[in-house]
Fold this protein.
Amino acid sequence: MLNNFENMVGMNKSVELIPDDGMIWDEDEEMAQLRFVSTSGLIKEVNGLIGEFLSQYLDENVISVVTEVQFSHIRPVVVGERLIIGIRISEVIANQFTFRVVIMKDADKVAEGAVKRAVVSRNYLHRKSVENI
């Protein structure tokens, strides 16, 4: 495991995302036909990107887990529109990482937020799982 997490502050990554039909906002039949991208779909993509990004710096005995998400979905997006997701580590306290997130469509901000993840032992999670059986 990376021992000095504090040195990671400022690290960032940007990726392109083209939302597909699995991300459709489908709470309402009429709105589903308009093929808008759901907020929960965007959050899922962001969490996956951050988890993948962070995992490359961790050893196999630990994993990062989402502990908090603050997210504002600012403007609608339709499935198939090209988006850019940008993430940046803004703070590290002990094993807690805070990422700032922005999602853009061309020059327009679609969403923004913050995600906190904690680095924890895989063994700890396994033990907790067994305790609940």
Summary: The chain has one domain: 5-131.
